[in-house]
Specification:
Layout: H1 3-15, E1 22-25, H2 32-42, E2 46-51, H3 57-61, E3 63-67, E4 70-74, E5 85-90, H4 97-109, E6 111-112, E7 115-116, E8 121-127, H5 141-144, E9 148-151, H6 156-166, H7 170-178, H8 196-207, H9 213-216, H10 218-228, H11 237-241, H12 254-267, H13 271-284, H14 287-303, H15 307-315, H16 318-332
Parallel strand pairs: 1-8, 1-9, 2-5, 5-8
Antiparallel strand pairs: 3-4, 6-7
């Protein structure tokens, strides 16, 4: 499944209050942990993130303390005692087998030592796969059989939707539209390589005028720098967004076309600007570029409360209606 599918699935588990222990598998840096955090915010849940690889068995079970002639286990303070939330065992298979075995009771019985997981808490875990060269241990079969297993793969469309909403630099989004294979590309010879996580770091670097190579590697950074030069070929977007760009041509170079469409999408901050950009594209670009624009724009308009106004503007424009009709016939053909 892609990250959006994963988010939907986990959301259903929470909505239906299904306290089934769940294991999320996927390559490093694709957003497993951030999806869990996003869902926790939406559902107003607390998250307790535990890295078993950094703990000893006694850290999880607690310390034995004599009380009235009986030895009792005092649980650690980081385990939740009340409320509602997600007990998240991140990077679980980086922990040695002894620690995974200790976690088995927590996952199966929702208890370890004298500690019991409160009723309002979900127990989820995440880990990388052997093929990701992440230095993981084999998950014991009895432990694996106690989980639901969800496999998530990197997906550019899911990342693009998230990136636009989070304000990732438009040049990075446009570049990845042009080179989507670089969204996630492990380089075993280099410490810095491309992933959704590292592209987000790269966005921060780019906003501050710093080299991107420390985040995404030398090769990808060089490609991005070359792509950035295409911005010299772009038309001025402001007149287009104000409905004054009828004499401006659509760029010829594919890289510049991606940059133009993404730039218009991000800077269409209200329905009027979106309508002007849409009109201009229907006049100067082919249907595939208009479709790229609309696929990202509609979600943004919805999130900004502008979708209804945008729809009314389109409905009143005969030339837009003709374009949409021709486009529908093109698809059906």
């Amino acid at each position: 499944m892609n990250p959006e599918d994963l988010k939907t699935y986990l959301d259903r588990l929470i909505t239906n209050d299904l306290k089934i222990s769940t294991m999320i598998w996927g390559a490093p840096g694709i957003g497993k942990s951030s999806i869990v955090e996003q869902l926790a915010i939406v559902h107003q849940l607390e998250v307790v993130d535990i890295r078993l690889s950094q703990l000893a068995p006694t850290d999880l079970r607690g310390l034995p303390v004599a009380e009235a002639g009986v030895s009792k286990w005092f649980p650690p303070e980081f385990l939740p005692q009340q409320g509602r939330g997600i007990l998240f065992l991140d990077e679980i298979n980086m922990a040695p087998p002894t620690m995974q075995g200790m976690a088995q009771q927590l996952i199966l019985d929702r208890r370890v030592g004298s500690y019991v997981v409160p009723d309002g808490w979900f127990v989820w875990a995440a880990g990388n796969r052997k093929e990701d060269r992440a230095g993981v241990f084999e998950m014991p079969t009895p432990l694996a059989n106690r989980f639901l297993h969800l496999q998530v793969e990197p997906d550019f469309e899911s990342f693009k939707t998230y990136a636009i909403g989070q304000g990732i630099h438009e040049q990075i989004i446009a570049f990845l539209c042009f080179r989507p294979s670089l969204l996630h590309k492990i380089d075993p010879q280099q410490p810095a390589w491309c992933s959704p996580r590292s592209w987000m770091m790269a966005s921060t670097l780019h906003y501050n005028g710093l080299d991107l190579a420390p985040a995404i590697g030398v090769a990808a950074s060089a490609e991005f720098q070359a792509f950035s030069l295409t911005y010299q070929l772009l038309p001025d977007l402001l007149p287009i967004l104000e409905g004054k760009g009828s004499d401006l041509p659509f760029p010829v170079e594919p890289s510049a076309r991606y940059a133009t469409v993404i730039g218009l999408t991000i800077h269409a901050t209200d329905a009027n600007r979106a309508y002007c950009a849409f009109c201009w594209l229907t006049q100067v670009a082919t249907a595939e570029w208009v479709q790229l624009f609309l696929s990202d724009l509609l979600g943004l308009m919805r999130s900004r409360g502008q979708l209804g106004i945008f729809a009314v503007l389109i409905e009143k424009d005969p030339s837009i209606q003709k374009f949409l009709q021709d486009y529908r016939q093109l698809i059906s053909a």
